[in-house]
Design brief:
Blueprint: H1 9-31, H2 36-53, H3 56-75, H4 81-91, H5 99-122, H6 138-151, H7 158-175
Helix pairs in contact: 1-2, 1-7, 2-3, 2-4, 3-4, 4-7, 5-6, 5-7
Length: 176
């Protein structure tokens, strides 16, 4: 039996958390839902990272503050429940002092996503008669489906913006 190479725990936890976030973003695009296991996994990863960093109590207070503010947005119908849970879980991934940067990055990513969906709403893709729809390239099919959803007013998959914002802040904190 060979021993695993000793890697810092944080070096293994962060990538695992981002794989979970990517899985959640994919599911949000496909079904407009974010599975509870994604938020739970990210929260546990964040708790582990914050306990290793020694700022767990402050991080829990910041996450509680963010969830209470996000709850108001959920009650007003401006955010989905899965979005609230995922943002609150992501609040634990970053140092408490980086929480405003995380929220700003999520809002900026969400704004870009919203603009993309506004553009998709007006996009009229021609039907390709030579290639059956089931054989169309996956990205082309995805764009067509999302354009159709945008024209019908289906909500934006905000899990993608949450993932992009969290990735930008965590990677940005690591590089600077």
């Amino acid at each position: 039996m060979t021993a695993l190479p000793s890697l810092p725990v944080a070096a293994m936890v962060e990538p695992a958390a981002f794989l979970a976030l990517l899985a959640g973003a994919r599911r949000d695009v496909l079904t407009r839902t974010i599975p509870n296991w994604v938020s739970g996994f990210v929260a546990v990863a964040g708790l582990l990272l914050r306990s290793l960093a020694g700022d767990l109590v402050l991080a829990l207070a910041a996450a509680l503050l963010s969830v209470s503010g996000l709850w108001v947005l959920w009650r007003c119908g401006m955010l989905g429940g899965g979005d609230v849970k995922l943002i609150s879980a992501c609040a634990l991934l970053v140092a408490p002092g980086r929480l405003p940067s995380l929220l700003a990055a999520i809002v900026i990513s969400g704004g870009a996503l919203g603009v993309a969906y506004l553009l998709l709403r007006s996009l009229r893709l021609p039907q390709v008669r030579t290639v059956p729809a089931r054989h169309a390239r996956p990205l082309v099919r995805l764009v067509r489906i999302e354009a159709w959803r945008a024209r019908r007013g289906v909500g934006v998959p905000y899990g993608c913006a949450i993932t992009a914002g969290a990735l930008a802040v965590v990677v940005g904190a690591g590089s600077g």
